[in-house]
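hey so i finally got around to running the thing on that chain from the lab meeting. sorry it took forever, my laptop kept dying and i had to restart like 3 times. anyway pasting the input first so we r on the same page abt which one it is
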Amino acid sequence: MKFHLKTLSLPELEAVLAPVQPSPVAVRKVFAAVFAHGASTVEEVCRAPQVPKRVADFLREHAEMPRLTVVERRKAEDGFVKYLFDSPLGGRVEAVRIPIFDHKYVVCISSQVGCALACDFCMTGKLGFQRNLRTWEILEQVMQIREEADRPVRGVVFMGMGEPLLNYTETLRAAQILSHPAGFAISGPSITFSTAGMVPAIRRYVREGHPYRLAFSVTSAIPEKRLKVLPIEKGHPLPELVDAIREYATVRRERAMIAYVAISGFNLGEEDAVALKQAFEGIPIKVDLIDVTDPQGKYLPPSPEELKAFRDHLQILGAPIARRYSGGKEIGAACGTLAASQYGGVVLPAPPPVSIS
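ok and heres what got predicted. didnt touch it at all, straight out
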C-alpha cells in the first residue's frame, strides 16, 4: 500500500523514509518540494534539488499524490472567490479565498464533508455528516488556491464545512504542516480553528499547547436561546464551554475570541448583553459580531439600528467589539452558507499558475 506524501508531517516523513537512511537535509528537501514548492506529482518531488537517487527511487515505488479536482471557481462582487472541490475519496467540499486589502489572501477551508452539528442557521449542517477529510485533502484546498493566486496566502481559517475539532488529528496535522517553515510557512497565530464548543477537544488543545488560535461560536449566552440554534448546547452546555474558554484564555494569556452570530429579533437585546457579561465575568474576551446569512430566510440579519443598539449594550463587557465582514453572500461563500452549491457571481476560468515567494 502506498503512502500519500501530502499526509505526512516532517517527523512522519522521516520515519517513512527511514529504510533508505536519508540525511536530515534530504528529508527536508522532500518535505519542502511537496509543501513549500507545491509539487503536484511524485516525479516532480523526485527531481527536486538535493533529493538523492535512492530516496527518489523509494518514492517512485512507494509514494502517491492524488489531488482534489476543482469543479469550479466562482467570484463575488466583493472579491471573494469560492472554490468547489471534488475528492477521489468521495464528496465535495468548498474553500473560500478572502482578499485582505490588496496585498494578501486568507483561505477559509473545510475539515469535513458535511457536518454533524446541525446548527440551525448553517447550510452545511443541513447536509448532515458524511466523513472527515484526510490531511492531504485539507492541505490541497490551500495548495490549489495558492497555485492560482496573484498574492501570497498569509492566513488560514478552519471555518468552512465541518467542525474541525471533530476531526482533531487530521486538522492539527494539517496546521502543523501549514505553519512549518519548510511547509507553507504561515505563522501559527495566523491559523484559526472555529469551534461550536467541543469541550473535551478544547481542553486537549489547551493541554497540548498549540500555537494556533481558537474562535468560539457562542451566539447566545442564554442557554435556552443557544439551544434553539446550536444543538451542541445539549451535549456541552454553556457553563462547561465557558470553563474551557477560561482555561484557554488563562493558559495563553490572551483574549478569547467569541464569535456571535447576530440574528434580528433573537439575540440582540439588552438581556443578551447582560447574559454575556455574567457568563464571561473575569475572562478576557473579544467579541466578533457576524451578521447571519440564511439563504432560506428563516433568520434575518439585524438592521443597522438594531446592531448599533446591541453594540451599545455590549459596552458593559469592557471588551473589544468587532464586526466581522462575511463576504461572498451572493455565491454561497459567507459564514454558514457553504453547502457545495453553484449559484451567483461569475464563474472563473482556471488562471495560469503564478509563483508567489
